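Could you help me review a protein record that somebody else here produced? This is what I was given.
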Amino acid sequence: MPRTPDYFAGKTIIVTGAASGIGKETSLIFGREGANVFCADLDEEGAAEIAERVTENGGRGVHMKVDVTSREEAFEMTRRARERFGRVDFSLNSAGAALRRSDFLNIDDDLWERTFDLNVKGVFYCMQAAIPEMLENGGGVIVNIGSMAHKRGGPGHSVHYAAAKGAVVTMSMGVGREYADRGIRCMSISPGPIDTPFHDVSSEELKESMRAQIPMGRFGTPEEIGELVLFMCSDACAFMTADTVYVNGGGGWK
């Protein structure tokens, strides 16, 4: 939680992947705090529903259909957020997916390229669009969703995804260090398994294998990650940048 009451009231966050999972719950949490929330997702109907709920929660929500793999759409998203709310203070880049599971030798060019387009280019474009706005405002915070997979490598089912998330973690570190003296903090969160639609592509056998390696014995919830995003963006977390935060119920190191 922020040290300053009403810290987020009137400030603006852009959330990609806002229609479900971590993006959805983060949007609602920032709405609860009175923020302006720009809900972006390919699922326009879902993004519109979350934007409406943000407003009902006490914030101001708007939505836009956005394909983050398009540089033009990422920049248009940021332009519209500034046009609607006057400024961009925070950015959560949570749009991402493994697309499908595959052992290493069956990862083809299409899966590799689409995985990197969504998980890496999507973050890259959104950060390039947001940083000039934040520089103009004198600062801001960017949080990117990485994954514990980058520490474990995704053997047997998701090396492509682990590699992409490793790039996100590294890119977040580089941007955080590059802009640390200009008021912009950039960091990532590397969750273990979180109970979101992301795991719809996982078999029950794989999910049970993941759960068995978590000492707490359960998947995390998207709300738990959303509350962490709130803290990382707040004035109570002012000395953190260029880091990734591992959230995995005590597991993930085998």
Notes: The domain at 12-246 is CATH 3.40.50.720 (Rossmann fold).
